[in-house]
Each structure stands twice: as C-alpha cells, then as structure tokens.
Design goal:
Helix 1 packs antiparallel against helix 2 and helix 7 crosses helix 9. The strands form two sheets. The protein has a two-stranded parallel sheet. With 599 residues, the chain is mostly helical. The N and C termini lie far apart (131 Å). The chain is elongated, with a radius of gyration of 62 Å.
C-alpha cells in the first residue's frame, strides 16, 4: 500500500515539475527579449563586432545564465518544498486512512471472535444440557430394563417352580432302576407303547389330542434304484404279518381300537383347524400390512411394517379362526358321502374365494380331509417310483439281425448329418431336415404298457372298477407265486439261523459241562451269566436255588433240554401238558423248578 502511494506521489510531482518548467520559460521569454538584429550584417563587420564584443557578450551571457540558474534553483527549491509538504500531507492522510482501516479490521475481527465465543458458550451449555438429559434417559432406561429383568426372572422362577412341583408329583412314578423298568414293561404296557402311534406308558400325556398329528415328517425316497411291484407287495405283506404277529388282539379289542381311532381323528381335525386358522390369520395380517404401507401418488414410498410373530404363538387365536372357517366351509376339513356335480363344484370353487360354502348338502362326513394325501393319485405325500422289469425278447434271430442292421444304418445317417451340420453355416439351422417324424405323446402306443394284457378278458361295463386299478396295484397269479416263494425262502433262512444259534448254544454248554467235569468242584463256573442273574433278581427269583437245580442235571438231561427248546420253537401247536415230561430222569422237584425257571 505504501509503495503504491509513493509511486502516485512521484508521478504527480513529475507532472507538476514539467508544468512549472514550462511556466518559467514562458515568463523568462516574455520578460527578456531575444538578442538579434533585424538587418543582416556583413561578414567582416560581424567578425569584427564579434571579436570586440566577444568578451562583453560572454560576460553578459554568463551573468544572465547564472541569474536564470539561480532563479531556477529558487523555483525548484520552492517547488520541492511544496512537493514535500504535499507528500507529507498525503502520507499523513494515507497513514490515517490505513490506521482507520486497520482499526476497522481489528474491530470486525474482535466482533467475530466475540460472536464465536458466545456461540461456543451456548453450544457448551447445550451439550451440557444434552448430556444431562441423556444421563436421565439412560437412568430411566436402566430402571425400566431392571424392572423387565425382575419380571422375567419372577416369571422364570414361577415356571421353574411349577415344573419342579410337577416333577415332584410325578417322581413316585419314575422308572429309575432296571428292576422297575422290567416290572413296568409288561405285555400290556408294550402293547400300549408300540401298538399304535403316540403310545405312552407311565404318566399319560394330558394334551395328546391337541399335539397328535400337529407335526409330521415326510421323506422322499431319492434312491436311484426303483423297487418293482413285487418288492413293494412283499414289503407290505411283511409289515402286515409283523403287525399281526406283534399286536395282541386280546389287548386291542374292537372297542379300544375304535376309541383310539376316534382320538386320532379328533387330534387330526384339531391340527387341521389350527393350521388353516394360522394361514388365514397370516393372510389377513399381510393384507393389513399392505394397506398400511400403501403410499399415495406423488409421495415418498414408506417402508413396509414388520409383521408381528404373535400370530404364530397364539394357539387359541388360530383355533378360533380355524373353527370359524370350519363353520363357514366344512368341505375344507371333511370328505362327505356324496359329491357335488360339476355346476355345484364350480359354485364351491367360487365360494372358496369368499371363504364360505353355499352349496347343497353333501351328506354325512365319512373322513377327515388330508391336504397332503387326498389329492395324490397314490394316496401318498410323495410319489413313489415303481420299477418294471423288461419283457423277455421273443423275436427271432432274423428280426434281431434286421434291427441291428437298421441301428447301424441309423447311426451312420446321424454321423453324416453331424458332419454336414459342421460344414454349413449356422444360419441355415432352420432349414435342416431332421430324420424321423416328431413324437406325438398323446398317440404314443409304442411304449411298454401292460394295459392290453390287464384288460384282456375284462368287460368294460361289468369290470369298470377293475380296469381303473392303477398299474402299481395290479397283481397277477405269478406275482402271488413269487411272493409265496420269497416268504418261504426267507422263513427257511430265519429257521436256519435259529437252528444254528441253538446248535452253537448246545456246543457251548457241552464244552462248559466237559470243562466242569474236569475241573474241581471249587473251581467250577456258575451256569447263569451276569445278564441272566440280573433278570432273575429283577423278577424276584432265587439265583442260588436255580444254580443248584442246573448243577443237579446231567449232561444228557441238559442236551435234552436244549433239544426240547428247539422243538418248541419249530412247533406251532401249543403243548397241553408239562414241556419237561419228555426229559428222562427228572424228579418232580426238578420239573417244578424248571417250570418255575421257564415262567
């Protein structure tokens, strides 16, 4: 700023100096006339006059020059003094203006700093108040959370106490020792436990009807080898024989079976009602959330609300909703005696949209509708693939050679077609001619079907139901013969296994008896092992008495007992008298002890 001010002053002084110089020369030229004559002189006169007046003129000129120079210096000095005064005056003004600007800048900076300090103080007060409010909110949150924890702890303690009370009430019925378990697993208990699904022993399940059929697991057989129709028949027959063998008809009377089936139907119906009620509640919840998340046109889309899981946890609400659906449309839960015609079924389909049934009466319900099985052709959750053995080749050698030749020609034609396709452009794929006609799946009569053989000899009117039997349920005489042969083979294998086991037991017993004869009496080993001793003690048997009884028998009597056991397993007729009458040399006391041991 100072440099710019000085440069301006010097320029002004220089301009003023030039103007002053011009004025000085004008005044000098006006006051003093010029030195020259109007008439020209001759050369000699001029030279002579010059020589004479040379010295006087020079002195005058010098004096005039000195005078003018002095006047010029005086003027310049005066001018410089004026310049200096003007410069000092301008400098003083510039310094004053600069000081004023600096003072104004300092004042503004101090004002900004003051405003900043005031804002900082306000922010500090605000942050302090915010920390105080946050501390109060945190203390309130801790108090609320502590109350929740105390409430949950109280609920947990009460629930645990209820469980402890129930366990203490049931504790006398617990089976804790092997003897109690053996005593509890009576034939009646085994029938109740394994005879039907959801069987229990000991403490009965108080919510059996509500929990039965609620969860069901289904597994699809993903094996690559399919079972043939004969294998499936054999498995079903073996399961039927197993049930007939292990289920006691004296325990499962018709009345008890009917009672159990009624309980199963009731449980299944309740499970279906709860399932449909849950679906309906979830559907209504979804519609409500969609309505809540609907955004008017032109507004920012709102996020969809998070659904509540209370619908899935309220069994009462699900059963209530399902019961209302049952009263509106019972066809969703029952299979009725009569079916509606096509027009009525269309009306029923339209009524399903309104979740109400408005059709005619369909008669009495005959079964509970199973959504997983009733719509399946096989009556199963997953379809079951059935393998089929290829039919025997009944062609002659000539026909076989003809087919082999045709296959070779077809392979050569396919190879030629592939080579031609590689040579032509890919754009000509649409113009390619494929060998053979396209396959018509609706009129495909060339597949390996058994319908013609099954329909042979059947009347379409009289045997209509027989003709509608699915292929997997069509059994012929050769299938039954194969099943009988397989069962006989399996029975023979099992009988051979039993005989081998008995023979090994006889050989083991014979070797033990031989070793006992060779060893002293003090070193002889007991007849019963640890497992047998534990079983005898569990039923209250005298182990020492039975040991003495078995030790009193001879080798021939022991072998006869094993043979008798094998005969009893092979025989299907029930013995009328004592089974030990055929053992020679037994006394009445030995027969009584053996009978008690066998029981």
């Amino acid at each position: 700023h100072i440099r710019q001010t000085m440069s301006g002053v010097l320029q002004m002084c220089s301009r003023r100096t030039v103007s002053v110089r011009r004025q000085c020369w004008k005044s000098l030229s006006a006051s003093e006339p010029r030195w020259y004559s109007a008439t020209p002189r001759a050369l000699d006169e001029e030279a002579t006059a010059t020589k004479k007046d040379d010295s006087a003129d020079l002195r005058k000129i010098a004096q005039e020059y000195n005078r003018r120079k002095a006047a010029y210096k005086r003027q310049v000095s005066k001018l410089r003094k004026g310049y200096m005064q003007e410069y000092q005056r301008n400098k003083a003004e510039d310094d004053a203006q600069r000081d004023a600007e600096a003072a104004e800048t300092t004042r503004r900076r101090l004002e900004r700093q003051r405003a900043k300090n005031e804002r900082s103080i306000q922010n500090a007060y605000r942050q302090q108040e915010l920390r105080r409010q946050t501390e109060l909110a945190f203390q309130d949150h801790l108090r609320v959370q502590q109350e929740k924890r105390e409430y949950e702890k109280d609920v947990f303690n009460r629930a645990r106490q209820l469980v402890i009370d129930e366990l203490e009430e049931e504790a006398p019925l617990w089976l804790t020792t092997p003897e109690e378990i053996e005593a509890a697993f009576t034939p009646e208990a085994e029938q109740a436990l394994w005879g039907r699904p959801q069987g229990v022993i000991g403490v009965p399940n108080p919510s059996l009807d509500s929990e039965f059929w609620q969860y069901e697991c289904h597994t699809w057989d993903m094996s690559k080898t399919y079972k043939t129709q004969q294998d499936i028949l054999a498995e079903e027959y073996e399961d039927r024989v197993y049930d007939e063998t292990n289920i006691d008809p004296s325990y499962w009377t018709p009345e008890k079976i009917a009672e159990r089936e009624a309980l199963e139907r009731k449980a299944k119906l309740r499970a279906n009602v709860r399932t449909e009620g849950r679906k309906s509640l979830l559907r209504r919840q979804k519609e409500f959330l969609d309505d809540e998340a609907e955004t008017p046109e032109g507004e920012v889309p709102r996020p969809k609300p998070i659904p509540s899981l209370g619908v899935l946890g309220s069994n009462k609400a699900q059963e209530k909703e399902g019961a209302e659906m049952l009263l509106k449309d019972p066809t969703k839960f029952f299979v009725f005696q009569r079916k509606a015609d096509s027009t009525q079924s269309e009306a029923s389909e339209e009524s399903e949209l309104d979740e109400s049934y408005s059709g005619p009466s369909l008669g009495a319900p005959v079964d509970i509708k199973d959504p997983l099985r009733h719509n399946s052709p096989q009556g199963r959750v997953f379809p079951r693939g059935i393998g089929k053995a290829p039919k025997p080749d009944m062609r002659s050698e000539k026909e076989k050679k003809r087919q082999e030749r045709e296959e070779k020609l077809w392979a050569a034609a396919q190879a030629q077609a592939r080579s031609d396709k590689d040579e032509i452009d890919m754009a000509a794929d649409d113009d390619m001619e494929f060998y053979g006609e396209p396959l018509d799946y609706d009129k495909n009569d060339g597949w390996d079907s058994d319908d013609e053989e099954w329909f042979k000899g059947l009347d379409p009117d009289r045997d209509a139901e027989m003709m509608k039997v699915p292929r997997e349920y069509r059994y012929r005489e050769e299938d039954i013969d194969w099943l009988i042969q397989k069962l006989e083979t399996k029975a023979g294998q099992m009988q051979s296994h039993v005989n081998t086991t008995i023979e090994s037991m006889e050989m083991e017993t014979r070797s033990r008896m031989d070793d006992a004869d060779k060893m002293p009496e003090a070193e002889s080993q007991p007849f019963f092992d640890e497992v047998a001793v534990a079983k005898l003690k569990s039923v209250g048997g005298d182990v020492d008495r039975f040991e003495k009884l078995m030790a009193s028998l001879s080798k021939d009597q022991m072998l006869s007992l094993f043979g008798l056991e094998a005969d009893r397993r092979d025989s299907k007729d029930e013995a009328t008298g004592s089974p030990f009458d055929g053992v020679p040399g037994l006394t009445s006391e030995q027969i009584t002890g053996l009978t008690e041991l066998d029981a």
